[in-house]
Amino acid sequence: MMYKREFTPDFITELKENEIFVFGSNLGGMHGGGAARAAYNRFGAIWGQGVGLQGSSYAIPTMHGGPEAIKPYVDEFIEFATQHPDMKFLVTPIGCGIAGFTPSDIAPLFKGSLDIDNIILPHSFVDILTKG
User: Fold this and answer.
1) Where are the domains of the chain?
2) Which CATH number does the domain 19-130 belong to among 3.40.50.1980, 1.10.510.10, 3.40.220.10, 3.60.20.10?
3) Residue 49: exposed, middle, or buried by beta-carbon count in 10 A (0-12, 13-18, 19+)?
4) Which burial class, exposed, middle or buried, applies to 116 when counting CB atoms under 10 A from its CB (0-12, 13-18, 19+)?
5) Which residues, at least 6 apart from 91, have a Cβ–Cβ distance to it below 8 Å?
6) Contact 58, 48 (CB under 8 A)
7) What is the value of pTM for the model shown?
8) Which residues contact 111 (CB under 8 A, 6 or more apart)?
9) Phi, psi (5° rounding) for residue 36?
10) Among candidate residues 102, 122, 84, the one with its CA nearest the CA of residue 5
11) Ramachandran class of 95: left when φ > 0, alpha when ψ lies in -120 to 50, beta otherwise
12) Any bridge partners for residue 20, and if so which?
C-alpha cells in the first residue's frame, strides 16, 4: 500500500486555521507533561478533560491500560475526524512518550485512518502500517 501524503511534523509549535493537535492524555485530563503539556500550554487543552476536542487539540487517553484499552478512544477519534472533514488532525505519536508504548504497540490502532485525508499520522506509525 502506498501512502503519498504528508506526515505529522516531529515538533508542532503552531497550528494553521482548522488544524487540530491530537495528543495522548490521561483520563483525568492532568496535562502535566509531554505532548499533553504542549496541548495545554499552546493549543487550548482543558485541565481536567481527558478525552475529545478542546480548543485546537484533541485528547486520546493512553495512560489507563494497554492498547486494547486505548483502542475504543482511537476509534472514537477516527469517527469524529470523519464527521469533521473541515478540520485537519495532526496525530502525535500518542502513547509513545510518558505512557511508555512503542509505535508498534499503537500504530495498528490507526489502521482504519490511512485512507482518511484529514487525519495526518506520524512517520513512525505510517511506516508500521504500510510495511508488508
Assistant:
1) 19-130
2) 3.40.220.10
3) middle
4) middle
5) 8, 22, 110, 113, 119, 120, 121, 122, 125
6) no
7) 0.95
8) 129
9) -65, -40
10) 122
11) left
12) 89
User: What string of pLDDT tens digits covers the 132 residues of the chain?
Assistant: 556 679 999 989 999 999 999 999 999 999 999 999 999 999 999 999 999 999 999 999 999 999 999 999 999 999 999 999 999 999 999 999 999 999 999 999 999 999 999 999 999 999 999 986
59 beta partners: 23, 52
Q: Is 13 within 8 Å of 30 (Cβ atoms)? A: no
Joined grid coordinates for residue 43: 493549543
Cβ neighbour number for residue 126 with a 10 Å cutoff: 20
